[in-house]
Amino acid sequence: MKRNISLIAPSLSDRCKEIILGSLLGDGSLKINSDYKNARFSFRHSEKFQKYFFWKVNELKEISGEKCFWKEKDGMLRYQSLALESLTEIYNFTHKKNKLTIKRKWLNLMTPLSLAVWWMDDGSLIKNSRQGVFCTDSFDLKSQKILAQYLLKVWNIKTKIGKNRKKEYYRLYIHSTEELKKFLKIILPYIPVEEMLYKVILLYNDSLFQQRWISEISRLTKFPLSVIEKHLVLKKAKWNKFQKMI
Question: What range defines the domain where residue 73 resides?
């Protein structure tokens, strides 16, 4: 059962907390440095996805200082918030012994926006873009089971836990195209920037099915159909190039 996100860190907006919680499952982290008493929120993204990066930065103004982002030596863009008591409250709610712990008590606070951030951070389309995977590499098997149960019970999304090709770590897979479409329809209204459209465009051989899906994307995201068609062409070209290489 989903709970009221306003119950934790009430001084922060719900939207800010929704983004933080989703990002904790993806590229974000909360940490209390040794010389601070309060937590900071941070994340990194490739410069390739700078529009998505700066969308996040803009959404998190209420926890940000004047110089809250910079480009690192490896070319990655990094954001870091102020050290705030409100962030410490979220940290204490989601962490144990300085480590993020996957618990239903905070997963139940997540919203469709949180799911969208999680997918944009660490979700990918695979198998001709007709299946999906959450790159939950850093979580143990117990945590994966909690995540899978959460998605099923709260959002009615069926997933399967499996190991990656090299059998090094677990990931959460959506093998059914229908289940994947169900999940994507939940998050599509919260895709904020054009450069993230490639993460929601499924590829079909049947032109009618393809047109139906990109029309659905346009309807739910409010991006013009012409913009989505442009990204569809780019994605098909990239996929065809990949197919020739294997």
Answer: 5-100
In angstroms, the CA 195 to CA 223 distance is 11
**79-116 confidence digits (pLDDT tens):** 999 999 999 999 999 999 999 999 999 999 999 999 99
Question: Is 235 a member of any domain?
Answer: yes
Residue 241 DSSP one-character state:
H
Segments in the chain forming alpha helices (H): 14-24, 50-59, 85-94, 104-107, 112-122, 141-155, 177-187, 207-221, 225-245
Name the domain count of the chain: 2
Flag whether 193 is in a domain.
yes
The Cα–Cα gap between 17 and 60 comes to 9
* Structure confidence by residue, pLDDT tens digits, 32-65: 998 899 999 999 999 999 999 999 999 999 999 9
